[in-house]
């Protein structure tokens, strides 16, 4: 609901609580139809590794639909836009579930339906949450912003852990593509219900008014901000690291270690449990050390993952505990990046008039750009690692897990590049090199 004025403290609190409720229900929804379940669903459909790699990148390719979300925001406001596209997003999830029925006729056609449905799902998600960060900035003060972002994400991950536990129990009892399709349908129903909470939020109208301004001119104006351009590069490399590490790690458990779907979901539970912790501590860490350092540590965390896979036991009693620890690590890095980059955006672009165009510009560059690069690079590296692994004489690259170990080593330069870029100071014209890339308070 657009009030057309500055929000009172009580109205800000109400809107923040509604967004927390939205994220709580949405967390349960997403665990039933997000990338973890989609990867397992693709494996049940017999999709090749390159298709699974593409699924991981579609989360970011979907950001190409951001301008549609801006047009809708200009008419309805940011909260109503997110609610509308959330219904469309979950309708698209039903398309992905239909791949189970199509598989009976043609497995190849089911892969195409899965990819098309996933693109629409992620595209509507991007269009709906196009102005998620400015919206939370609109319903909070500068001092509240980082804590509000962390708290809402924490509620998402908290419910996600509970939902994964339920999904794991279901998958332990029922197996196969039909069971996974039923889980996706359940998630779509929960997602539609979550939209009613965000629709009731109050907002000032500043985001709607900013969305009505010419987008191209606004993007050019926002990108004159050197800190925002630098954040785009940092964010691009960090997103690329997520694309190349997280979905393929799930596939490595499934096809490299022979994990059942239920065991893989336990690892996903560890991932989102770490996300809950990271979400609640990210704000204090940013205030203490600055977002640039937190982002650098997250990049360093991803750089350690290939070496963890080299030491990973394929079988035996240590395989499951090792997998849980690895995915706890991945989840902590993932959500530290998610929270810190959004908080850094509000710091780099504090003017609400520039936040709409700035958010679109950054997400197109760092989101859609990383998705396109990740889909191409991931598919190529999966293929190359499959061709090269048989020629390597090292025991670590033998067996079903060997291809994935080589893949993660080939991906290593991406988080290393992200680490180096995050560590470099932002050089301002006429300023000393002591200036940090982003403000130290977030």
Describe the structure.
The structure is a single chain. Helix content is about 80%, strand content about 0%. The protein is mainly alpha-helical and about 450 residues long. Helix 1 runs antiparallel to helix 10 (about 175-200), helix 13 packs antiparallel against helix 20 (about 415-425) and helix 18 crosses helix 19. The radius of gyration is 21 Å and the shape is globular. The relative contact order is 0.15. The model is unreliable at about 430-440 (pLDDT under 50).
What portion of residues is helical?
over 70%
Radius of gyration: 21 Å
Which runs of at least 5 residues are low in confidence (pLDDT < 50)? 429-442
End-to-end Cα distance: 27 Å
Beta-strand content estimate: under 5%
- What would you call the shape? globular
Structural class: mainly alpha
How many extended strands? 0
In N-to-C order, the SSE pattern is HHHHHHHHHHHHHHHHHHHH
The averaged pLDDT comes out at 83
Number of helical regions: 20
Characterize the main sheet. none
Describe this structure in a few short sentences:
The chain is mostly helical and 442 residues long.
Descriptive keywords:
442 residues, mainly alpha, globular
Secondary structure blueprint with pairings:
Layout: H1 9-33, H2 35-44, H3 49-61, H4 66-76, H5 78-97, H6 99-105, H7 107-128, H8 132-138, H9 142-173, H10 176-199, H11 206-211, H12 215-222, H13 226-256, H14 261-289, H15 291-303, H16 305-310, H17 319-348, H18 352-388, H19 402-411, H20 413-423
Helix pairs in contact: 1-2, 1-9, 1-10, 2-3, 2-10, 2-13, 3-7, 3-13, 3-18, 4-5, 4-7, 5-7, 5-10, 6-7, 8-18, 9-14, 9-17, 12-18, 13-15, 13-17, 13-18, 13-19, 13-20, 14-15, 14-17, 15-17, 15-20, 18-19
